[in-house]
Amino acid sequence: MKYTTLAAALLLSSTSAFAADAIVYNEPAPAVVADTFSWTGGYIGLNAGYAGGKNKFNGYDNFAVSAKDNASGFLGGIQAGYNWQFDQTIVGIETDFQGGNLKSDAEVTYGATTYGAEAKINWFGTTRVRLGYTPVDRFMVYATGGVAYGKIKASAFDGVNSFSQSDTKVGYTVGAGAEYAVTNNVTLKTEYLYTDLGKLKLDDVNGVRFGEVKAPFHTVRVGVNYKF
Q1: Which residues does UniProt assign to the signal peptide (predicted)?
Q2: Which residue, 18, 29, 134, 150, has fewest beta-carbon neighbours within 10 Å?
């Protein structure tokens, strides 16, 4: 009887030890960290692109001819701005300055005379508001619009005399774009803008009005920003 009780006790003890050894301790699964990227903050960046449009020249009096010509050229520049994020809505302001060579030439034959006109935009800038929406944290689409300014230089030839004039004009710009945050500090964007700097009036030294040039243009560009 004593031997039976002792055997049972030894069997129970070994079974309990085996069960304890069989318990495997597992490390808890790592917690999932949500993407907490925010568009709020300032940024600065570079851009490059292509511009094109149709320059229009309207003449007066003895230069009473009109001409149109396609204008195009590459451009590049810098931009800086600041965004505020409210849930999925982004409100921001951006300013940029562009250098380039947007140029057109036009010739019109009227009777026995060939008239010529040329227009150039070598630089322009904009200051715009941006209103964006983020369907996902790191991707934003936006509309933009504001003030544009730039220097228009125009020249004309009436078959005998030639003259030129330049002036810095102020107009408007509107457009849209998309931007993606590659990292918490680097974003890539693509953007379209329509820009109208108004009219440049061409007068000679005596104040005689020969005509006016209107040079609206379209811009498509890509850029990279560094977000602070």
Answers
A1: 1-19
A2: 29
